[in-house]
Design brief:
The structure is a single chain. This protein is α+β, with helices and mostly antiparallel strands. The protein folds into 2 domains: about 55 residues, no CATH class; about 140 residues, Reverse transcriptase/Diguanylate cyclase domain (Alpha-Beta Plaits, 2-Layer Sandwich), CATH 3.30.70.270. The two termini are about 40 Å apart. Strands 2-3-1-4 form a 4-stranded antiparallel beta sheet, sandwiched between helices. It has 7 helices and 4 strands. Helix 1 runs antiparallel to helix 2, helix 4 packs across helix 5 and helix 5 packs across helix 6.
Length: about 220
């Protein structure tokens, strides 16, 4: 969680206090020693509440990655940037195969652990420029700026290979991945996600949801 609110409000409070001293004159030294820490603590606490509200408005509670609301906010900005640079952008939709069976067989706590594990693997596999978002349930959205179709295929393969080879993937989790390319295939985020979802569903059918093996 960033400290933007805390630092901003604290800086504003200190600057305001200093300006007040300059205009109205210096108070007693003992009063300074009391007021400055008090104002600083109030400012820090207020800023912390702002940072918490902002964090929870943009981050998923379980996985701590960005949520759907953030995707709707960031996509237009990235879209405009790609237009300025005359670059393409890939939008991936990723879904955990047999996730319902995981929850039913091993319990929802294990299902949550799978989502957290997958989030951490994605974060290590992808670059900082690629935005990972929990789209809902066991679905993840990945926005990859400066990415054409050939590069998108490489990213898809990298994710699948990472899952296959990871020692942390004790349940043998597999995923289905679909993607679309802006602006070649989609102009809006809704359209991009729809096309990625269609491709992901085709991938799921082809794989017949192989991966998780229920515990007997």
């Amino acid at each position: 969680m960033r400290c933007t609110g805390r630092l901003s409000i604290l800086a504003f409070t200190i600057i305001t206090y200093v300006i007040g001293l300059f205009i109205h004159g210096n108070p007693s030294t003992s009063l300074d020693l009391v007021l400055i820490p008090v104002f600083s603590l109030i400012a820090w606490y207020s800023g912390k509440q702002y940072d918490l509200v902002k964090f929870h408005s943009e981050k998923d509670f379980l996985t701590k990655i960005y949520n759907r609301r953030y995707a709707e906010k960031i996509f237009p900005k990235l879209k405009s940037k790609m237009e300025r640079l005359n670059k393409s952008m890939a939008v991936f939709l990723l879904d955990v195969n047999n996730f319902k069976e995981i929850n039913d067989s091993l319990g929802h706590d294990t299902g949550d652990a799978v989502l957290i594990m997958l989030t951490e693997l994605l974060s290590k596999t992808l670059t900082k420029s690629e935005v990972i978002i929990r789209w809902g349930g066991d679905e993840f959205l990945i926005i990859a700026p400066n990415t054409n179709q050939m590069e998108a295929e490489k990213i898809k393969g990298k994710i699948e290979t990472c899952l296959l080879n990871s020692e942390r993937n004790t349940c043998h989790i597999a995923v289905s991945i679909g993607y679309s390319i802006y602006p070649d295939q989609a102009k809006r985020i809704e359209e991009a996600v729809m096309l990625a979802d269609q491709q992901m569903y085709k991938s799921k059918i082809q794989k017949k949801c192989n991966g998780f093996v229920p515990v007997s």
